[in-house]
Design goal:
There is one protein chain. The chain has 498 residues and is an alpha/beta fold. The protein contains 17 helices and 18 strands. Strands 1-2-3-4-5-6 form a 6-stranded mixed sheet. Strands 9-8-10-11-7-12 form a 6-stranded parallel sheet, sandwiched between helices. Helix 4 links the parallel strand 3 and strand 4. Helix 7 packs parallel to helix 8. The two termini are 22 Å apart.
């Protein structure tokens, strides 16, 4: 996105294609319409500045309507000085409650804070009413405060504002970043907030519902679930049930806060569940039938509130796939499903790459930068171990191995000393390295296929997806001794990286 001149933009206020004109100036071609009252408020703001003596040159280098990629957090106006402050101005066409203004500006400061600059956050209400939030208090000020900051000869950032904002800086994982979660150093997206409010208001009003939160990997299910638990923990006795092995992050959260308990599904039974007024189940697609039945019984017979978070695509075995807990939930007449979209994924490029690897015909319709993805080759496991150790030790990557079988040996056992796919359920890592060997191949029509796992209940393909979908920022695929597979996956990277 490119910064624009607000005075020049406003000269085109009567154009029928004003939105296209604005997008052309900003070199931003997303189909976002600008409402009439938004245009009128912008005009009013520019006029107010002009009456204070600001010239066209002073109204240059504003980013108008910038949204952080993948999060959709939008700012009305931003002006970022190269060696100075960042000025944020939110435009309102009418009066709103001061609490809402303060909340928005406080949220804006959070999203701008990683720039490590002095931040000025204003709200301009049509007809020259101005508020400033300084990080502690909201106060009514004069428009002269804005004039003083804008009338500055310092150089401004003019292009590629997107490079200043990375989604991973905001989309925290409560399990991998327990300190940030405990300090409430995060905000939910608008969609997450909407779902949270719907569920909490329903519970507070006594609705007898089984609540579901559905979303693919990286959509923020776990953060939303834990945030709901934190809120409800002020009002009732709450427990989160993790459908897997508790990690160090779970243990740290469990020991450092008192608003809710965290237990492994292994410790779940009727007596334990009965101790709580509300239970929230993470990764519930992996529940055993006996545990699912126990929870439904607790809801129907004892009125215990239940919130299930799940992604059917993240099942790891044929037993889990055939059990199909999400479908069993949908068969409950009290069930209400809430879906998270995939628009807030931490890395859209990794998502695109994974989809293309799964199906070679599933090519993106536009150029995608795959520079954060590596495809490496090792001709045997001895070489592979050296590469893995280098990436883990020197490049801060997390290596995830395939869950081994206790029944029959396989080449994957050669890397079994690392954390496996069953240990990282619900977790995310900035950088992930993951291996593929002769246990994988492509069908004639270009679909990725896994061979039969030594434990015939496990699904190689699902274990692979579980591993690669844990990456937040960088992904490295290491192919071991399977040159045809390497050639196919290398082409996926190269066709959109040239």
């Amino acid at each position: 996105m490119k910064a624009i001149n607000l005075a020049i933009l406003c000269l085109g206020r009567n154009l029928q294609n004003f939105c296209e004109y604005k997008n052309s100036m900003a070199e931003c071609y997303k189909e976002k319409r600008v409402k009439k009252d938004e245009i009128e408020t912008l005009m009013d703001f520019v006029k107010a500045l002009s009456l204070k003596g600001l010239e066209m040159s002073d109204l240059d280098n504003f980013f108008y309507g910038f949204a952080i990629p993948q999060i959709s957090k939008e700012f009305d106006l931003l002006k970022i000085y190269e060696d100075g402050p960042v000025v944020n101005i939110e435009l309102k066409s009418r009066e709103i409650e001061s609490e809402r203004i303060e909340y928005q500006l406080k949220k804006n400061r959070y999203y701008l804070s990683h720039l490590n600059r002095k931040i000025y956050t204003f709200c301009y209400i049509k007809h020259q009413k101005v508020y400033l939030y300084d990080g502690n208090n909201l106060e009514k000020v004069s428009i002269d405060n804005i004039v003083k900051l804008i009338k500055c000869s310092k150089r401004c950032i003019q292009n590629n504002i997107e490079k200043l904002f990375t989604a991973k800086d905001y989309l925290i994982s409560p399990i991998n970043m327990p300190v940030k979660f405990l300090h409430e150093s995060y905000y939910l997206t608008a969609q997450q907030e909407e779902i949270k409010n719907k569920i909490i208001n329903g519970i507070r009003s006594g609705e007898q519902k089984i609540w579901g939160i559905c979303g693919t990997a990286g959509t923020g299910k776990t953060l939303l679930l834990y945030d709901i638990a934190r809120t409800l923990g002020d009002e009732m006795k709450v427990c989160i049930i993790h459908s897997g092995i508790l990690s160090q992050g779970h243990i740290e959260l469990k020991s450092r806060q008192k608003k809710f308990d965290i237990i492994s599904v292994r410790d779940c039974n009727e007596d334990v569940v009965s101790n709580y007024e509300c239970v929230l189940i993470d990764e519930s697609q992996r529940l055993y039938q006996i545990d699912f039945d126990c929870l439904i019984k607790a809801f129907k017979e004892k009125g215990i509130k239940c919130i299930f978070s799940y992604d059917f695509f993240q099942v790891l075995s044929y037993t889990e796939q055939n059990r199909n807990i999400p479908e069993q939930l949908k068969q409950q007449e009290e069930f209400v499903e809430n879906k998270l979209s995939d628009k807030i994924r931490t890395n859209a490029e990794i998502v695109s790459f994974i989809k293309n690897v799964i199906d070679l015909k599933n090519k993106p319709k536009r150029y995608i930068d795959y520079s954060n993805i590596e495809v490496l080759y090792a001709f045997d496991y001895t070489v592979a171990k050296n590469i893995i150790e280098h990436y883990v030790t020197n490049k801060e990557y997390k290596f995830i191995s395939y869950t081994p079988s206790r029944i029959k040996s396989n080449d994957i056992d050669k890397l079994s000393n690392y954390t496996n796919t069953h240990h990282i359920i619900g977790q995310e890592f900035d950088n992930v390295i993951f291996s593929m060997d002769n246990n994988f191949k492509y069908t004639e029509d270009g679909h990725l296929q896994g061979r039969i796992h030594p434990n015939p209940d496990y699904i190689f393909y699902k274990l692979w997806f579980q591993g690669v979908s844990r990456a937040r920022e960088r992904l490295c695929i290491l192919i071991i001794g399977n040159e045809p597979l390497f050639n196919n996956i290398l082409q996926v990277k190269m066709q959109f990286s040239e």
